[in-house]
Amino acid sequence: MSQDFILQTRNLVKEFKGFTAVDDVNLNVERGTIHALIGPNGAGKTTVFNLLTKFLTPTRGEILFNGKDITRQTPDSIARLGIVRSFQISAVFPHLSVLENVRVALQRTRGDSLYFWRSEKTLDSLNDRAMELLESVGLEPFANARAVDLPYGRKRSLEIATTLALDPELLLLDEPTQGMGHEDVSVVAELIKKVGQDRTILMVEHNLHVVADLSDRITVLQRGAVLTEGDYATVSDDPRVREAYMGVAADGDPSASNDEENAA
After folding, report:
1. Are strands 60-65 and 5-16 parallel, antiparallel or unpaired?
2. What angle (nearest 5°) sits at the alpha carbon of residue 87, between those of residues 86 and 90?
């Protein structure tokens, strides 16, 4: 295991009753980079994420984090190691304020995430750090707003803030711009770029403009297997990628190819 790689998979396989959803996948995610996982509908991207975060158990293969075999560890132990994941659907407490959402996440790092009956004074001790996190994602002006009242893109920014509260070493972003308009996409893309300056990010993303702008390296999956890897220029010039993933968008606007799996 090279110290340059924070995450590796070795011959990772996931089978469901004879169907191979992930087929001998070898990932090498370099520390301090933004690494994108892309591919057509049903390529196995979400299944790979579920394997990495232990929502699924591999049929065969190994997962290494900082050189340590984590293949059989539980989801909570994975999170404690420093691997934190966001999901396709924004997961925040809708009727809590923006500040309260981040404060709940911070409580988890202190081991008292379920102590909602603690005094307001005790909980207020988390406010300074919570406001720092909100400032880092551009949500400081919305601190007292209810999460449910935020525009969709801002909700995703809040979700990223709550994941950052857990101080992840590796952040897994699952379709961070899914369902967004152009303005929200730009906001979240800039946020990902900013967050990626201080940590490693592995993301599944359908918007190829975002992938091109943010990614240091790209892995393309097809039918559960790695089709090719490289930077955006290398990947986008590969005729196999154009055929398998980009389709008609290969000759035009890459963002036109937005068909993506919801779950593989």
Report:
1. antiparallel
2. 95
Domains of the chain: 1-82+169-264 (3.40.50.300), 93-167 (no CATH)
Q: What are phi and psi of 23, to 5 degrees?
A: -125, 95
Please name which of 59, 90, 85 lies closest in space to residue 7, comparing C-alpha atoms.
85
- Collapse the DSSP code of 64 into the 3-class scheme (helix H, G, I; strand E, B; otherwise coil) and give the result: strand
pTM score, whole prediction: 0.83
pLDDT tens-place string over residues 153-196: 888 889 889 888 888 999 999 888 888 888 888 888 999 998 89
pLDDT in tens, 187-245: 889 999 988 988 999 999 988 899 999 999 999 999 999 999 999 999 988 888 888 76
Q: What are the tokens at 174?
A: 């699952």
CB 13 within 8 A of CB 61: yes
